[in-house]
Amino acid sequence: MRYAYAITGALLLGGTAVAVTSSPNVGAQTAQNEGMQAAAPAGAPASLADMVEKLQPAVVNISTKQRVQVQNPFAGTPFGELFGAPGGQPQTRQAQSLGSGFLISADGYIVTNNHVVSAGAESASVDSITVTLTNREEYSARLVGRDPATDIAVLKIDAKKPMPFVKFGDSTKARVGDWVIAIGNPFALSGTVTAGIISAVHRGTGGTYDKFIQTDASINQGNSGGPMFDMRGNVIGINSQILSPSGGNVGIGFAIPAEQAAPIVATLRKGQSVKRGYLGIQISPLGEDMADSLGLAKNRGEFVQGVEPGKGADRAGIKPGDVIVSVSGQEVTPDQNLSSIVANQPIGTRVPIVLIRNGQRQTVTAIVGERPSEDELNSFAQQQGDDFSQQQPPSSGPQASQQSLGISAIPLTPSITRQLGIAAETRGIVITAVDSSTDAGAKGLRRGDVVITANNRPVASQADLDAQVKQVAAQGRTAILLQVLRRGQPAVFLPVRLRDK
Description:
Its EC number is 3.4.21.107. It comes from Sphingobium vermicomposti. There is one protein chain. By secondary structure, the chain is of the alpha+beta class. The chain has four domains: about 55-155, Thrombin, subunit H (Beta Barrel); about 170-270, Beta Barrel (Thrombin, subunit H); about 275-385, Pdz3 Domain (Roll); about 390-495, Roll (Pdz3 Domain). About 15% of the residues lie in helices and about 30% in strands. Strand 4 and strand 5 (about 140-145) form a beta hairpin. The longest helix has 13 residues, at about 460-475. Residues about 1-25 and about 385-395 have low confidence and may be disordered.
């Protein structure tokens, strides 16, 4: 979904001829549009021209020149040197990128998207950044700072004179249905103005910090980094992404809200890096299956899959299997996820965290740490992550089809423990077969997986598992939470739907 980089358009022209006859008995005719003027919707101006005239000079075109290393397709063949660099080595090519931005100070500070001024690939590097004003004046720009996590960057030009600029507004007051204007340079068409309404606020698209303003104002390639204005001319968003199956605008665009962007821009403008709060936990959404397995409402809170030793969550006593429902008084929801709430907490502060453990609500206090680098985070995620849904198809057996979940299992013995290569102290049951037609099969459970707990209760036999399934069903739930261990991976929690009767 992220960014549309190409579009093909076709313009079809056609016409129809209309024969008009008049009768001498018919009086003088007037054009249908004679003297007509549309009334403005309530709260909207009859024309946006005066406002646009003042705002446009603060919106700029941003272009970069990049060097990209391209692999020689003939490398290693007799044609390697004929069609490429000597020895068939990679070739260096020049590339360009285009985007938008806007001035936020008279001395030449500019806000844009990070992806507008970043190299498009690991093998590419940015040689220069050029800023072009609406009066066609060009300036070389330097990168002051960037924050890839939120796709924000700040540039600086050496202004020859005071520059026109705009300021951030209050996006927290933005409401669905409010009118907005986007100004940018789609497809290098500088100074393009589009208008629409706010379609949604706090819209997530899968990223950790996504809290976008969604709009139907036309946004295309080249609009990235440009401003979204409210009807008072204040910047309430930075146009950033589009959802486009076709590659062109389909009326679904996203802007980074000013409430999120303004503090990051202020930090980058000072030459500082953005620091975020961190608790050290791996979480998963409380979707329908997970919520049902816990007997909780879906999309209210997030499930703790893993806790990083020594970090704030671990010291506060948070454990895998907990459901965190609020942090510092802010409820955890899909629109306001746990990561974004924690990231905005000042580092070193003590925050109350409300969680649900074994159906009981309790409060702990954690000290917020500093979020590590993305490389460190990826390392932790790989250690904690599971790939149950991406493994080979589960094995099937007649005994599995007769069991409550479609899982056939036997007690874990010291001999089996050694064969599986798991810790000697592990207790549970080992799966011998899975009915592939069940949810257990669809979730990727397979022969050799070890079920440690079911419904947060230890299991030591198939009978224990079946008893917990019956208890969950008696409570009106349609899924059960299993804690599963796979060789070479830490234990993870997996909701499995009960078989249909």
